Amino acid sequence: MSSELYEQIRNNPTFHELVTRRGRFAWTLTIISLVLFYGFVMAVAFAPASLGQPIAEGSMMTVGVAAEMFMFVFFWLMTAFYVHTANSQYDDLTNQIVRSALKGKKS
Amino acid sequence: MSRLFSALFFWLISSSAFATPTIEATDMQATNWHAIIMFVIFVALTMGITYWAANRTKSAADFYTAGGGITGLQNGLAIAGDYMSAATLLGLSAMVYAQGFDGYVYMLAFFAGWPMILFLMSERLRNLGRYTFSDITAYRLDQSKVRTMAALSSLTVVCFYLIAQMVGAGQLIKLLFGLDYNIAIFVVGILMVVYVTFGGMVATTWVQIIKAGMLLLGGTICMLLAFKEFGFSYQTLLERATAVHKLGPKMMYPGSLLADPVTAISLGLGLMFGTAGLPHILMRFFTVSNAAEARRSVLYASGFVGYFFNVIFIMGLCAILIVGQTPAFFEGGTIGGKLIGGGNMVAMHLAKAVGGNMLLGFLAAVAFATILAVVSGLTLAGASAISHDIYARVIMKGTASETDEIRVSKMATLGLGLVAIILGIAFEKMNIAFMVGLAFGVAAAGNFPVLILSMYWKGLTTRGALAGGYGGLISAVLFVVFSKSVWVDVLGNKAALFPYTQPALFAMPVAFILAYVLSKTDGSAAAKAEIAAYEDQYVRAQTGVGSDAPAAH
To answer: For an engineered disulfide with B373, which of B9, B86, B211, B345 has Cβ 3.0 to 4.6 Å away?
Structure first.
């Protein structure tokens, strides 16, 4: 693949739109997952007693187990959201960029 | 040739079954015919697939990545299969049984890496890589040096992970077939070599898919039957479990495995970023046709993995009562003594208690199949590092023919089979989930930092990548060697030189800082060219323009 083709794509404004939008989306979701997970790890490390508390009086469900169950579900929903968005919107943009670059090369 | 090997295998299995009564020792159980029959069916099926795959494995692309023709769902199941090893089923259920909440923390840490892999890595991996993840780290850097580093690091991770799998296999077969531990290790080693050398990635993927399906089914049935005894009530289960568990209500608090903050944080880092540095998992991103399928793979894989971890959690909790209160599962019949077959056999005893010999047989066959499938995937990743990176790119400088490259990878597979057998015997007494934790620690410090920097940081140069890669790898290995688990327990020294068991918190910064400082201070002309080459790499990483078009299958 020639450097000219890459140069051409780099100069395409749609390419910038793609990388900015997808990058912002991916990093936002990454930061949410890191904050939740390491927040939990910090609780395990520095406040272990709080995780063993029941969520309600007389319940055997503890704060730690409830938080983990929530994260299992929430993280998976985030992956579903990302895959849905990336495979439709962002891949459409990518295809546009690639098509116009290949057309430009021929002419 | 493959017929010869399957004949050899059946001879091994049948002779081992017949040999049972003579070599049976105290902690071995009577031969379980249900398990043997189901396992033989599984092996026959997978041998058939290997035979079929062997005819379809012609080119190097077929051997390493199944020609790129795997779909997102298939690959997602295969990734889940690679990830849900015997250590997961046996080790984590045992951990929940013994430590309660700590086991569930391990599981979340194993799971939490997946979203990040999807958001930050899956697309770029697929768009930049071809056969191994070194293709990406070496993309714009010095091929020979960077590939050598990445291959060594991959092989280290593969070896650590193999130990965990081989130990699990040995214990399981000892329990089931009444076979000597060492012989069991040889059986696994030989079978795995057959799958990989003859069937390459096509066979490895299908073995993995079948196994993942069986594992999900077997685990779910066992969990439902066990949970039913408590009326599917978490409340009832926990009330009764905390009443009899040796830790009492403390079992639902973070406990001894996460005793100090440093261990807890280091473990979290190691498991999360280690997932993103496992060579056999990264390799799976090259078996699909494009970035969209790569993303879909992660969606399916993380769904299956997350579901299964929760199944194991419930299984482990139920086992506290169902296994832990039944004298028949303990040596000498004393409750609270040593479990028959060792601490990792909790899930197997639970299956027997709730589903009789039939379910025990099924789950045991599944667990054995799991080990075979995972060691096959690991060995394929290790063999690729040797043949594609070291032989074809470093030694032959890209001039090796495909036939030679495939031949070398088959010899490498044989070599790794031997290494796996030796390590499996040397580390017989290790807790397997713990060993997996160490493999993840090395992956997190040796592979992940340089890989992520090569994709995201323009300024990375060859000098920085080498320093970061070797620095992370060596420091992680040294931290492990100097820790209690090796320095004291294996080498027999009196006191550990490094007080913590998890290396990631210390080794990852070493890797990142070395890579950063030595790249920044690299003023050579080569470094400038490498930095300039990032622009083109960036476009390819974002759009996939220039990556190989996969062959249809």
So the answer is: B211
